[in-house]
Amino acid sequence: MDEGGRKTLNLLHVPMKDQNSAHHKHHENPNNTQFKKDKVLADAPERSRYSFRRGGVWILFFLLLSLVPLGIGLVSPTPDYRNFWMEFGVTAGFVALGLFAAQFIFSGRLAWVAPSFGMDNIVHFHREIGIIAFLFLLVHPVTLLLHNPAFISYFDPGVNLMRAIALVFVNFAILGIVATSLWRIKFGLSYEKWRLLHGFLALSIVFIGVVHSVQVAHYLDPLWKKILLGATMGACMYQVLHTRLVRPWLNRKHPYRVVELKEEHDDCYSLTIAPVKGPKMKFIPGQFAWITICDTPLSLQQHPFSFSSSAQADTISFTAKVSGDFTATWKDLKPGRKVFLEGPFGSFTPEPDSHVFMVVGGIGVTPAMSILRTMRDDKDPRQAILLYASSDWDDVTFKEELVEISQQLNLRVIHILEEPPKNPTEGIETEEGRIDQEMLAKYLPENHDQFMFFICGPSGLMDVTEVALHQLGVDWRRIYSERFKIV
Ligand SMILES: Cc1cc2nc3c(=O)[nH]c(=O)nc-3n(C[C@H](O)[C@H](O)[C@H](O)COP(=O)(O)OP(=O)(O)OC[C@H]3O[C@@H](n4cnc5c(N)ncnc54)[C@H](O)[C@@H]3O)c2cc1C
Questions:
Q1: Is 324 helix (H, G, I), strand (E, B) or coil?
Q2: Where are the domains of the chain?
Q3: Whose CA is nearest to atom 7 of ligand 1?
Q4: How far is it, in rounded angstroms, from Cα 178 to Cα 132?
Q5: What is this structure's pTM?
Q6: Each residue's pLDDT tens digit, 415-461
Q7: Which of 41-45, 48-52, 256-260, 446-450 has the lowest mean pLDDT?
Q8: Minimal-distance CA residue to ligand 1 atom 24
Q9: CATH assignment of 39-45+349-482?
Q10: Ligand 1 centroid to 304 CA: how many Å?
């Protein structure tokens, strides 16, 4: 153990199942008995790590928050019990309202929630809870209407025009929010329009839900109950406005400027920026930030990108593969262009007391580059293994720098190519085909419990790797994934 009580590892013996590979290079390390104190992490934001305790606290908070409307309704004074189906239908409505409101907190953009789970898990959670909230909301009118068809009058404009419009709108809004989230691309909706629509529909659903509950008033009869419901749901809704408007607005005082733009292999561009004044954003390698390239931070075009530069560098770099309207503009960016950053986010970050095993594909190499560049700058003695999948050798972004870095670090890079190179280069390890369990087993170190595993790339590669590593005996708490495709 070091002075900080942290476990230290003996780097002399890091056995690999495939130590006899013809191309395998072993790099002597000057300091191989104990990890250096991590310089990067010393002045970086608090480290992120999944933990049952922190995760449990947040899940409990989520559950309590989603039960707030029901709880307010059930606090004394309560009206007389009617019958099971009436109360069941009303309960479903209250739970749906609470779940929708809690989604605003667990949407992945709050720096204090995301690190407990990782962005990837938060996005999955947000999506699945959205479907559950949708089902609860559906149960609400269906149960009440089946129990008492007279409730159809709630949708009758002749009885109450505003109420009918609002409730019909909510039904379409909920269908719209679920359908566009599941099938955005099939609908031909750009990400920016989807994001705007998603926020607007979500806010409208909760707002109308609160107004509807207050108007019905059966369980919210005393005024304080109405105020309490409005205040708690309003606080949740404010989180969306804070993320979309207030935070970017506050960010306007911290602009960056483009310093350099570099073309990379495979239609990729590296953008290097520096703060106009003050220090650059501190980040842990493996994290990402939201980028806006515009004169104002209040733009719809805000996109997440992993840092690709070393955390030790004076400037910050991102590398994008051209995939649509935003990334297509990168090649024309000129030095001096204003850029805004929001972040850092993410827990795709190695701990200082673990070796690093990374499985990446295509542009998923960017967080790995940041991790390796930082390790290089930090003269980090840990062992790193990079399995890097690409379609062919010409498409391998950063291949030259990876050769350089592997001579400076205790790093082994294995290129997994669908098409093998015509003229293999001496000293470069390649495998033909795609990443699968057999290939992972070949490169999995025997002491894999001393490694952290990072997966980033196309969905297929990530799905296969997550399952295969688990089946090969890797503890799931050591497996971290970063998915670039959110919806
Ligand atoms: C955590 C994270 C880190 C990422 N790091 C990188 C990186 O280092 N390099 C890289 O090339 N790409 C990265 N991406 C993906 C990158 O954000 C998208 O490729 C980019 O936003 C595409 O925008 P576009 O308008 O050029 O393409 P589009 O054709 O509009 O979008 C292509 C796909 O990118 C996603 N996307 C588009 N806009 C956004 C947005 N505003 N927010 C979130 N997702 C969006 C959607 O899934 C969409 O289908 C990352 C994504 C995430 C979530």
A1: coil
A2: 39-45+349-482, 52-249, 254-345
A3: 305
A4: 11
A5: 0.82
A6: 999 988 877 777 899 999 999 999 999 999 999 999 999 999 999 99
A7: 41-45
A8: 324
A9: 3.40.50.80
A10: 6
